[in-house]
From TrEMBL:
Recorded name of the encoding gene: Tbl3
Record domain U3 small nucleolar RNA-associated protein 13 C-terminal: where: 683-812
GO biological process: endonucleolytic cleavage in 5'-ETS of tricistronic rRNA transcript (SSU-rRNA, 5.8S rRNA, LSU-rRNA); endonucleolytic cleavage to generate mature 5'-end of SSU-rRNA from (SSU-rRNA, 5.8S rRNA, LSU-rRNA)
Protein localization: Nucleus, Nucleolus
Molecular function (Gene Ontology), one example: U3 snoRNA binding
UniProt key word Repeat: yes
Keywords recorded for this protein, A-Z: Nucleus, Repeat, WD repeat
The organism of origin for this protein: Trichinella pseudospiralis (Parasitic roundworm)
Protein name per the record: Transducin beta-like protein 3
InterPro entries named in the record: Beta-prop_Nup120_160 (IPR059141), Quinoprotein_ADH-like_sf (IPR011047), Utp13_C (IPR013934), WD40/YVTN_repeat-like_dom_sf (IPR015943), WD40_PAC1 (IPR020472), WD40_repeat_dom_sf (IPR036322), WD40_rpt (IPR001680)
Length: 1002
């Protein structure tokens, strides 16, 4: 997630280069924190408990595809069980709550489960669904107080329960015998195996406790012929006859058994504390020692899923949260690891690329993780006795790498590409404290290869490597590993612990950084016995140096420090600071140089990209929740077409996550170019549709492009009657949802509220409430309609209270017939009444303007026959079935003498006839006036003006423009221009406007 674009324009450069952009290509996040696991019937999904949720892992991709539960609301998961068909998951939480989750819904977040019950006071310790098809809906739950309950998950009712006195229930199973008898079998931590037969009629219960094991019973498996197999931590397994309740056979395994699966009726695979997968023949009771395989950690669960060729595929879950896919061969009783995935790595300490596909990860563990970036596979490499701290790979080999550990040793490893096996070639010892940094030589030292290590003991050691050893196979590696290598030279490099080292590509220069705040430069002298010679040092940092790196050209050295600064040095004979990079607000922990780009991470989890030329931060990414401890850049590789692939970097942090980032700069530039071309094409299409008045198509295109301003422009070209309704009726459901969302924003502005209310009215009258509430995004904007609609209604009510004044003016002027009382309007249709009132209001303004002009002209010397009143007709409202529709403006009025009569009874103003008396009417193009905002959604209109073109006369030449009605879109039409100019303007309606505004606000 890009949280800050600190990219700035470099004024020193004449051409602006696009800043580099990275995005996460792959995430390796923890998804399993220990506890219960389950496998889907097809073996493609793995259910893992992770804190308060259950994560569903896609085994093919190695990524989490679904999360069951909510981290914020639920308590921690204690146990869960998956039904046989994989459709229902029963989850028990530590707050004694049990929930049933329906897994049929294919959603990323599954957050609503059915509550089965409020559990008893004891905690759920184990649970299991019935494996027989008739018992698939039955759930057996064992509690820590020794009680067992049987539940029907379909009816969500408890069928029965009982409580024993033999301790905590550790394992449960529900069996159906050959005589159709159902039994609940459970084991306890005292070694008892209990069988409980619950009668369907509820009259009697049959319970029996069998004694053989002396420790916790961990496994209960149903066998053929009504036999039962149990395994315990007392290193034994027992075979029982379920009907007769008799012990038929017992076998000693010499290992505490934690889990087991039955491959055939006479072959059992089990695992225990040693982490070894072993086989036992149930007929002979012999262990097949030659066929065992070690997983290096206690095995806590086995899951048998499907057949594969001559064997079976099963999954093994270990105590260190790793999941293995195993193939068990039935013919030769062999087992092989097909794949493994790490469920929880812990805090990441170091990352390094072995190749463009393989990523090495060191965590707070003595095992190294080797990730396949494409498939997500994780291979564990063991050898160190303590936590691995550092990794170094070779620039001339994709098979060799070195690790350093807290055990004071460094190990040289080699990967076998054909088998994927990793073997240790040699162990390098001599440090008395933890090895903090290792560096393998580059290809220029292939003749005399060497290895450099640094430690907390303040020393730097250089080891000479044998070329024969580097090219050895597994057999030779075993012989070389017997003796530890000794250092060719040891140097006390700093006064405090050495934190980091770096080796140049060509000039054999070594840089070291320490907690003593210094950076030192060394010369490496190669030969049969390698040596180190000091060159220069720098003490510019204010705190300990955390990392140093050379540029590929060898002429530059970058350093990071706890003082939140990065420094760039020149290494031509001495260390000269060229530039300081400021931008981090916390200690910088790691850095890397990739061409002309500097990459750094800090203790706040931020990843920053810097330009070496300008020294400016180009991008900042919030990479990790905690400190970012690890950073690595993949080696450049060629694509099939011959060009270099985009850069890839990896980061790791205290949030136990490892992220792989990919350079997407070229892709983003291409996408931006394509988007610009698309935008131009859509703009041209919209312009063509508007030009040809194809408004419905223009509206649909504007909604498809998510352009609310364009949609508003198109809608304002329509009338609010049939044209708007016909256009809305042709919209699809998703387009209508988008339009309704835009209308909620338009409703907040009184200028467009009438249009928004018309759209809302159409939606409410054409769709049922159930249909509207089923729209996905309706909840995001529906509540926004209520407050502004109430505000608009209050404003209309205020106008209605002021209407008696208009009635009084009209009746006093005696120019209109008696109108119906305003109190009778607006009861059935408030919107229609509002438009009616507004038309009356407009007519009153016209009459007042005419009378004011007459009074002004009567004081002048203009002849009456030369006076003219200029009025521009406009479209007006006419009632229709769907509300109001717009009628076109009347024909041009003018050219009449004082005594002549017009050819029609009146000119329409705002939809109401106004008689023309003694006026000579002539059309004119009105002067445009700037409009801002008032209570009608218009803004401060300029007062109407009186213009005398000739000497003063009783009736002056006036230009009267009626106030703009915002809900009437459309043009007024072109009219002819006057033959004279406008010289002066006299305000005539300012007093009335002030009165109107005053009453509107009261």
């Amino acid at each position: 997630m890009n949280i800050a674009a600190d990219s700035k324009t470099n004024n020193m450069n004449t051409t602006a280069q696009p800043s580099q952009e990275f995005e996460i290509q792959r995430r390796f996040d923890p998804f399993y924190s220990g506890g219960a696991t389950a496998i889907s019937p097809d073996g493609r999904r793995i259910y893992c408990s992770f804190g308060n949720v259950v994560n569903v892992l896609n085994w093919d991709t190695g990524s989490v595809i679904q999360t069951i539960g909510c981290k914020e609301e639920e308590a921690a998961v204690v146990q869960f069980s998956l039904s046989c068909d994989g459709g229902t998951l029963a989850v028990a939480y530590e707050n004694m709550l049990l929930k049933l989750w329906n897994l049929e819904a294919d959603s990323k977040q599954c957050s609503n489960g059915k509550i089965l019950k409020i559990a008893s006071r004891a905690c759920v310790h184990c649970m299991a669904y019935g494996r027989h098809p008739d018992l698939a809906h039955m759930l057996v739950i064992g509690y820590s107080d020794g009680s067992v309950k049987l539940w029907d998950t379909e009816s969500r009712s408890c069928i029965g329960g009982m409580k024993c006195q033999f301790g905590t229930v550790t394992s449960v199973a529900l069996l159906r015998l050959s005589d159709q008898t159902d039994k609940v079998v459970f084991g306890t931590d005292t070694g008892r195996v209990c069988m409980w037969k619950f009668m369907d009629d509820g009259e009697n219960s049959n319970f029996i406790a069998l004694s053989f094991h002396s420790a916790t019973v961990t496994v209960i498996i149903a066998m053929n012929n009504d036999h039962l197999l149990t395994a315990s931590r007392d290193m034994t397994i027992a075979i029982w006859e379920a009907k007769a309740h008799l012990l038929r056979r017992s076998i000693a395994l010499y290992e505490a058994v934690e889990c087991a699966i039955l491959i055939t009726n006479d072959l059992l695979t089990f695992g225990g504390e040693s982490g070894t997968v072993r086989f036992v023949n149930l007929n002979s009771g012999c262990l097949l020692e030659a066929k065992k395989i070690s997983l290096r950690s206690r095995i806590q669960a086995f899951h048998l899923c499907r057949s594969s060729g001559h064997g079976l595929v099963c999954f093994a879950v270990t105590e260190d949260q790793n999941i293995y896919e195993l193939e068990l061969n039935q013919d030769d009783q062999d087992v092989q690891i097909r794949r493994q995935i790490a469920g929880n790595n812990g805090e990441v300490r170091c990352v390094a690329f072995l190749s463009s596909r393989l990523l090495l990860v060191a965590t707070i563990s003595n095992q190294l993780r080797m990730y396949d970036i494409e498939s997500g596979d994780c291979r564990l490499v063991g050898g160190h006795s303590k936590t691995i701290l550092t990794i170094s790979t070779s620039s001339w080999s994709t098979e060799l790498f070195v690790t350093g550990s807290e055990d004071g040793t460094a190990r040289l490893w080699k990967l076998q590409p054909d088998t994927g096996q990793v073997s240790c070639l040699s162990v390098f010892s001599g440090h008395v404290k933890s090895v903090t940094a290792v560096q393998l030589c580059h290809e220029n030292a292939a003749k005399y290869p060497f290895l450099i290590t640094a430690s907390l003991d303040r020393t730097v050691k250089i080891f000479s490597l044998k070329r024969k050893m580097l090219a050895s196979d597994n057999c030779t590696a075993g012989r070389e590993r017997k003796a530890a290598e000794t250092a060719s030279m040891t140097v006390v490099a700093h006064n405090k612990s050495v934190r980091c080292i770096a080796l140049s590509m060509r000039q054999m220069l070594l840089a070291t950084g320490s907690f003593d705040q210094t950076v030192k430069l060394w010369q490496v002298v190669t030969g049969h016995r390698c040596e180190l010679q000091p060159i220069d040092q720098s003490e510019l940092h204010g705190r300990g140096v955390s990392d140093v790196q050379f540029s590929p050209t060898d002429r530059l050295l970058a350093s990071a420090s706890g003082d939140s600064l990065l420094r760039l040095f020149s290494v031509d004979g001495s260390l000269v600071c060229l530039r300081t990079f400021q931008g981090h607000e916390s200690p910088v922990l790691k850095l890397a140089i990739d061409g002309l780009r500097l990459i750094s991470v800090d203790s706040q989890g931020l990843l920053k990209l810097w330009s070496l030329r300008s020294g400016l931060c180009e991008q900042t990414y919030d990479a990790h929740d905690g400190a970012a401890q690890a950073l690595a850049v993949a080696p450049p590789t060629l694509a099939p077409e011959g060009s270099f692939r985009p850069a890839v970097i990896a980061t790791g942090g205290d949030d136990c996550s490892t992220l792989v980032w990919r350079d997407v700069t070229d892709e983003r530039i291409e996408q931006a170019r394509y988007q610009r071309a698309q935008t131009l094409r859509h703009d041209q299409t919209l312009a063509n549709l508007l030009e040809h008045q194809r408004l419905p198509e223009a509206l649909r295109l504007a909604l498809h492009l998510r352009r609310p301003a364009t949609a508003l422009r198109v809608l304002r070209e329509m009338d609010l009657g049939d044209q708007l309704h016909n256009c809305l009726a042709k919209l699809q459901a998703d387009q209508l949802q988008t339009l309704l969302q835009y209308s909620a924003e338009w409703n907040t502005n009184s200028r467009y509220c009438h249009l928004a209310q018309s759209i809302l009215r159409f939606v409410l009258t054409r769709h049922t409430p159930e249909q509207i509430l089923s729209w996905p995004t309706v909840g995001q904007f529906l509540l926004a309609w209520i407050p502004y609609t109430e505000r608009h209604l209050q404003r209309i009510d205020k106008y209605k209270d002021q209407l008696p004044l208009i009635d009084f003016l009209l009746q006093s002027a005696k120019v209109l017939p008696t109108l119906p009382p305003t109190a009778l309007l607006g009861k059935s249709d408030p919107l229609s009444a509002t438009m009616y009132y507004y038309c009356l209001y407009t007519s009153a303004l016209f009459l007042l303007a005419a009378s004011s002009s007459a009074r002004y002209a009567s004081q002048q010397t203009i002849p009456a026959e030369q006076s003219m009143l200029y009025y521009k007709p406009r479209p007006y409202f006419e009632p229709s079935e769907n509300g109001y529709k717009i009628q076109p403006a009347p024909q041009a009025i003018g050219g009449y003498s004082q005594a002549s009569k017009p050819s029609f009874p009146a000119a329409h103003l705002g939809g109401f006839p106004i008689p023309l008396q003694r006026q000579q009417i002539q059309h004119d193009q009105l002067v445009s006036q700037n409009i801002a905002s008032d209570e009608f959604g218009r803004g401060p209109e300029k007062p109407l003006v009186f213009v005398p073109p000739m000497p003063i006369a009783p009736y002056s030449n006036s230009i009267v423009e009626e106030p703009s009605i915002p809900v009437v879109p459309g043009s007024y039409g072109a009219v002819s221009s006057p033959a004279y100019g406008l010289s002066t303007a006299v305000p005539v309606l300012a007093p009335y406007k002030n009165l109107k505004m005053q009453k509107a606000t009261n």
